[in-house]
Fold this protein.
Amino acid sequence: MRLLLNWVLSAVALLIVTYLVPGFYVAGFLRALLAALVIGIINATLGLLLKVLTFPLTILTLGIFWFVINALMLELASALVPGFEIRGFGAAFLGAIVLALINLLFRRLLPRRGE
C-alpha cells in the first residue's frame, strides 16, 4: 500500500513541477503515473549505477552532481514516455531540484512506518 502511495505522490510531484518549471510538460495524470514509474525504474537501475560510479565527483561538488545525474535520468524518461516532455537540460536540471524538494516535503508529511 505504501508503495502505491509513493507512486501516486511521485506522479503528483511531477504534475506540480510542470506548473513550476518552464520546459516541463506532462499530458495528464495517467502520463504522470507512467512517467513516475519509468523514472523509478531508471533511477533504480541506471541511476544507481551512475551515482555509485560518480560518487567521488559528487563529494567534490558537495552533492550538486547528483542533480545532474537526476536531470539526465529525467531526460531519458522523457524520451521513453510519450506525453512527458522536457525541453532542454536546464529545464531538466531545475526540474530535478524542484522534484527533489517536493518529494522531500511529501516524505515529511507522510507518517513513518509503525506510526
Q: What stands out?
A: Residues 2-109 form one domain. The chain has one domain: 2-109. The two ends are 15 Å apart (CA to CA). The mean pLDDT is 89.
